[in-house]
Amino acid sequence: MTNDNRRILVIDDNVNIHEDFRKILMAPKESDSLGQARAALFGEAPTLPPQIHYELDFASQGREGFGLAQSAHQRGTPYAVAFVDMRMPPGWDGLETVEHLWYADPDIQIVICSAYSDHPWEDVSRRIGETDKLLVLMKPFNSIEVVQLANALTKKWNLARSVKQQIDSLAYSVSQRTAELQEANKRLQERVARDAETGTNGALEGAESMFRQKEEFLAIMSHEIFVPMNELVSRAALLLDGTLNPGQREHMATIQRCAQDVLTLLKDMHEFMAGPGQETRVGDRRSVRSRGE
After folding, report:
1. Collapsing DSSP states into helix, strand and coil, what is residue 242?
2. Which site from 108, 167, 189, 293 is most exposed, i.e. has the minimal number of CB atoms within 10 Å?
């Protein structure tokens, strides 16, 4: 997904609620005659402030909403947020619908629309468990609350997806570079073994040459790892500077700490490979000796 995901699913048995969400989250389309009237009055059509564009789908029952979420996830176009009514007779209630939604798509952010007379929060928490993907919107709610929740939760979904992609990319890069390093080490050992068997005088020079090549390869590999790792650390810092609940902040702090630990490990590895009297530039594409170079 190259663009931000602004897809929202509304599950409510009241069609009037569907219309309310349309009015709140979908920008009204001006008619051509209104645009012409604006142009005639002002000389040109005035520039209106941009409004976030959301894609809305609606379901009247929990089972129907579950089918929409499952199909969207399988197509690779998942919903970022779902607004779910707590009471939807005669089918699933809100809690059962939420459980099925997370079965179909574990990453979807959910807002339960509940009245004070519905399930107490203790019952909801006991059944759903501790999670940072669930919020409760008490009825009656106003349009500002809906807009803020839609904006914040879609941003949260997209930031979480971005961090996940960074981690997956880093893991793939580390795996590829590790395999290349193992292959280079294998070739070095094979050459040293051949030189030892033939008894050539150039065995030592060959081993030193291969070691220098290995050291150069290690410097290049570290550069390829440091770039995405530093990006991951900076993204985590941006998230920590934002508005997060305690659970989210704990997860992001763990990601940032692990990334910094990997950076420290790579730096220590370079210092070990350089040895005394040498200097290795961590994250650079060159390995520089401090003596004679």
Report:
1. coil
2. 293
Domain boundaries, the chain: 7-141, 160-274
Total length of the chain: 293
Bridge pairing between strands 81-85 and 134-138:
unpaired
CB contact at 8 A, 272 and 224: no
Residue 7 pLDDT level (bands cut at 50, 70, 90): very high
Q: Which residues of 51-65 are buried (b: 16+ CB within 10 A; e: fewer)?
A: eeebebbbbbbbebb
Helices (H), the chain: 15-25, 32-42, 62-75, 94-104, 121-128, 143-198, 203-241, 246-274
Q: How far is CA 218 from CA 138, 167, 202, in A?
A: 57, 21, 24
Strand duo 55-59 + 81-85: pairing? unpaired
User: Nearest CA to 78 among 180, 154, 24?
Assistant: 154
Q: Which residues contact 256 (CB under 8 A, 6 or more apart)?
A: 233, 236, 237, 240
- CATH architecture of the domain 7-141 equals 3-Layer(aba) Sandwich (3.40)
Dihedral of CA 161/167/171/172: which sign? positive
Residue 28 is given by DSSP the state P
Q: Could you tell me the pTM of the whole model?
A: 0.60
